[in-house]
């Protein structure tokens, strides 16, 4: 309840908080496992890698942890707080309420060198994504379900610039065959050439603040923001799963719950493998 209150309060002032917390969890679990290592500040840490430069939600986790420490000192790890915060972010956005497991310890290592090889890039094809997911014991069903996290959130223009090319006159045009041309031109109207780097657009152009299955309906219509989204419908290995989720929000929520539990079980540290940090931003001294 303490974590839920912190997430709800922060989301009231900033509607982008739920998506930030969910993305933060992914970047934590996919690198060193769900051990809160992405939360650690400092040179050479995961957080310092340029691939994590656009991550947000750190202060929400830190605030939630501070509340928990008042009532349950040295009992709940930052890793568990982050999992709970991401779970609550989904629920507050209209998604399912997942009953997550607890008992994770915080990792004592956070290394920038571990980031790039473990993070899915928005330009990836299905084989590249499958390789990373398989290394975490996640399968194609998990990949399709967890990609549904893009039903909320916003992204910088640079995150999907690979889908456009510049002609001899300097005009940008959509070149990715998996991208609906009208949607591509809509994106270009929001992200023209030499656009302000701070500009962001909704991952889901229809219901960007709601955790729902419209993301999959968008994929069917060629309106996936990233190439890594569009290939899920473009590849026969995952197309039917996308169609099923597009047709049934209940099926998506069921798939999300299963895969979210698998995601939050990656590389969990227990016992002497980790610690319970006093502050999420630094390893105990």
Automatic annotation (TrEMBL):
Gene3D superfamilies of this UniProt entry? 1.10.520.10, Peroxidase, domain 2
Bound how, and how many: what does the cofactor note say?
Binds 2 calcium ions per subunit. Binds 1 heme b (iron(II)-protoporphyrin IX) group per subunit.
Residues annotated for Ca(2+) 1 binding in this entry: 28, 31, 33, 35, 37, 46
Stored PROSITE patterns: PEROXIDASE_1, PEROXIDASE_4
Catalytic reaction equation(s): 2 a phenolic donor + H2O2 = 2 a phenolic radical donor + 2 H2O
The GO molecular function terms of this record are: heme binding; lactoperoxidase activity; metal ion binding; peroxidase activity
Q: Which cofactor does it need?
A: Ca(2+); heme b
Question: Which cysteine pairs make disulfide bonds?
Answer: 29-34, 78-280, 157-191
Q: Which family does it belong to?
A: Belongs to the peroxidase family. Classical plant (class III) peroxidase subfamily. Belongs to the peroxidase family. Ascorbate peroxidase subfamily.
Record-given protein name = Peroxidase
């Amino acid at each position: 309840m303490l974590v839920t209150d912190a997430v709800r309060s922060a989301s009231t002032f900033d509607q982008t908080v739920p998506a930030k917390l969910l993305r933060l969890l992914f970047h934590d679990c996919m690198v060193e496992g769900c051990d809160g290592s992405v939360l650690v500040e400092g040179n050479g840490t995961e957080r310092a890698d340029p691939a994590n430069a656009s991550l947000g939600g750190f202060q929400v986790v830190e605030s939630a942890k501070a509340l928990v420490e008042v009532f349950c000192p040295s009992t709940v790890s930052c890793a568990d707080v982050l999992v709970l915060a991401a779970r609550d972010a989904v629920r507050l956005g209209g998604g399912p309420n997942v009953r997550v497991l607890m008992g994770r310890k915080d990792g004592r290592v956070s290394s920038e060198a571990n980031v790039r090889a473990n993070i899915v890039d928005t330009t990836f094809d299905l084989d590249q994504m499958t390789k990373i997911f398989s290394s975490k014991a996640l399968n194609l069903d998990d990949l399709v379900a967890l990609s549904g996290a893009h039903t909320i959130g916003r992204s910088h223009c640079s995150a999907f610039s690979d889908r456009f090319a510049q002609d001899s006159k300097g005009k940008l045009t959509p070149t990715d065959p998996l991208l609906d041309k009208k949607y591509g031109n809509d994106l270009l109207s929001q992200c023209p050439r030499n656009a302000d780097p701070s500009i962001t657009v909704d991952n889901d152009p229809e219901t960007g603040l709601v955790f729902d299955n419209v993301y999959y309906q968008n994929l069917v219509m060629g309106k996936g923001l990233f190439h890594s989204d569009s290939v899920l419908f473009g590849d026969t290995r995952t197309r039917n799963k996308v169609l099923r989720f597009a047709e049934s929000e209940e099926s998506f929520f069921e798939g999300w719950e299963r895969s979210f539990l698998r995601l939050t079980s990656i590389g969990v540290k227990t016992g002497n493998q980790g610690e319970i940090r006093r502050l999420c931003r630094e390893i105990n001294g």
